[in-house]
Design goal:
The chain is of the alpha+beta class. Helices cover about 20% and strands about 40% of the residues. The chain has one domain: Beta Complex (Ferric Hydroxamate Uptake Protein, Chain A, domain 1). Strands 2-1-8-6-7 form a five-stranded mixed beta sheet, with helices on one face. Strands 3-4-5 form a three-stranded antiparallel beta sheet, covered by helices on one side. The protein is built from two helices and eight strands; from the N terminus they run αββαββββββ. This is DUF4430 domain-containing protein.
Length: about 130
């Protein structure tokens, strides 16, 4: 019985697409803009594993670059959303928030219908985190 279990475990480790295989990195940029202060946008290059979510990439970027920090809040119905970037936080009373936009490689800017916890970046996109008012 033990040899059969051991053989099955070794087979799983060799199957394509298992967790043991590294996936390709998807490079993209994160652009931080403050439309209220009209400061110069700051661009950070980062990556995520293929089919990885934006939240994971932001965590990786924050851990590897001291010039990028963010916080997020977990909403029970809508999932994670940006609370602050580089010390600037959205405030409900001021009607300010961090807007998520995506500039595709062909230059189109879109507003995704999902947030940082579900958005899956594609290679060479520009993820724009824009501080603005509603």
């Amino acid at each position: 019985m033990l040899p059969a279990l051991l053989s099955a475990a070794l087979l799983l480790l060799q199957l394509p697409g298992t967790l043991t295989q590294a996936r390709a990195a998807v490079p993209f940029d994160v652009v931080v803009e403050n439309s209220l202060l009209q400061t110069k946008p700051v661009t950070f290059s980062t990556h995520v594993e293929q089919r990885g979510i934006l939240l994971g990439a932001l965590k990786t970027l924050s851990a590897s670059n001291a010039n990028f920090k963010f916080t997020y809040t977990e909403h029970p119905d809508y999932g994670p959303y940006l609370q602050s970037v580089n010390g600037v936080a959205g405030i409900d009373a001021d009607h300010t928030y961090w807007e998520l936009l995506v500039e595709t490689p062909d230059g189109k800017t879109i507003r995704p219908d999902v947030g940082i916890g579900c958005y899956i970046p594609s290679a060479h996109q520009r993820i724009i985190l824009r501080f603005t008012k509603w």
